[in-house]
Amino acid sequence: MWHGQRKGRRRSAFTLIELLVAVTILGILAMLIVPRVIGRIGGARQAVAVGNIHTLEAKVLEFQIDCGRFPTGQEGLRALVYPPADVQDKWKGPYVKDKDIIDPWGEEYIFRYPGRKNADFDILTLGADKQEGGESENADVIN
Questions:
Q1: Which of 86, 108, 106 is CA-nearest to residue 96?
Q2: Which residues contact 105 (CB under 8 A, 6 or more apart)?
Q3: What pTM was estimated for this model as a whole?
Q4: Secondary-structure class of domain 16-142 per CATH
């Protein structure tokens, strides 16, 4: 009877070779897929930065209409979140939230008044490398 019970049993574990084959296949798939996904994340961050800068540009113009002036270079985009002392009675903000002035790489957007690229003001991010210039995800994004 002991012999009959052994034949009827099914194997419930994987062999070492089966596990190695499965891990190898997963490794190959990861090598093919991960670089593509990472490349798309960088492009997505650039697209988010472009959209955010357009929104911030509109909010700076709202600030200018309400307060009669642009934020100074020293006040920067924080003037959209917290009222500067000299315009508290005219300020109709907050125009944006604290998190809205942070770029997709965790840095505050740069505000320059007067602008170097645009007549009135510049809003920019330096990209992933946090340095001027660069390509792809490291490229600067400016209004």
A1: 108
A2: 45, 125, 127, 128, 130
A3: 0.69
A4: alpha beta
Residue with tokens 């084959």: 21
Domain boundaries, the chain: 16-142
Phi, psi of 71 (to 5 degrees): -60, 145
pLDDT higher than threshold 80 for residue 83:
yes
pLDDT (0 to 100) of residue 103: 93
| pLDDT value for 135 | 77
Query: What distance in Å separates the CA atoms of residue 41 and residue 38, rounded to the nearest whole number?
Result: 5
Beta-carbon contacts of 125 under 8 Å, excluding residues fewer than 6 positions away, are: 49, 53, 103, 104, 105, 107, 109, 110, 140, 141
Give the number of other CB atoms < 10 A from CB of residue 77: 22
HSE toward the beta carbon, residue 20, CA cutoff 13 A: 3
